[in-house]
Amino acid sequence: xxxxxxxxxxxxxxxxxxxxxxxxxxxxxxxxxxxxxxxxxxxxxxxxxxxxxxxxxxxxxxxxxxxxxxxxxxxxx
Length: 77
Fold this sequence. Notes:
Elements: H1 2-22, H2 40-45, E1 65-66, E2 69-70
Antiparallel strand pairs: 1-2
């Protein structure tokens, strides 16, 4: 009876050890990141004031991003 218990414990330990050995510790390949889309509410709340830094027109309250700054009017006006 004692032998069966030892055999069961040994099999259980070897099973658990094989599971941890088979688990990958390597980092997965990074996914291509997708630009997050904001809802209209957050887009309106997060618009930048005149003079703030920007990357494109959609970030500014005035919708005019020139030389990485939010402008009030275009150069032609």
